[in-house]
Amino acid sequence: MRYLISILLVLIVVSCSSVRVNYDYDKDVDFSSYSTYNYYADMQSGLSQLDERRLLRALDSTLKTRGYRLAEEPEIFINIISDEYQGAPNNNVGVGIGGTGRNVGGGISVGLPLGGPNLQRSIQFDLVDAQRDALVWQAVAESGLKENVSPSVREDRLRALVKKVFSKFPPKVK
H helices within the chain, ranges in order? Predict the structure, then answer.
């Protein structure tokens, strides 16, 4: 029984920390023509100032390693929008009946809420062609949110999020 509970707790922790990302982009855009970027001056990310700085540092580092450079007059503007919301609870109730031969059995299982509310964070990254003022690439990342973690853990999580989000940028246009 302890083994089963241990496995269940590990699965809960792993599922809460995963980042889900949805992508969209303009398939007619030649992404190889872009080499410079900057952020909208009036960007309202929805993050705390500290988390926004952590996120921008991670993003700058990621883009720099891919050959992009921060510029006053960029080819791409980046906008970031964040939102926190209450996720649906992972509780459930199951009823089962089964049997073989003359034996019939049944059971009921009830999901119990573990760990309090299911707080989620969504961060949207919009990349806009500066010359055409047109959205060319977008990613929306969703993940569990834990507010009571150390600054280094927050930075590590944001760095991992940016790495996953930008693992598919620029897109492989076919």
Answer: 2-17, 49-65, 151-165
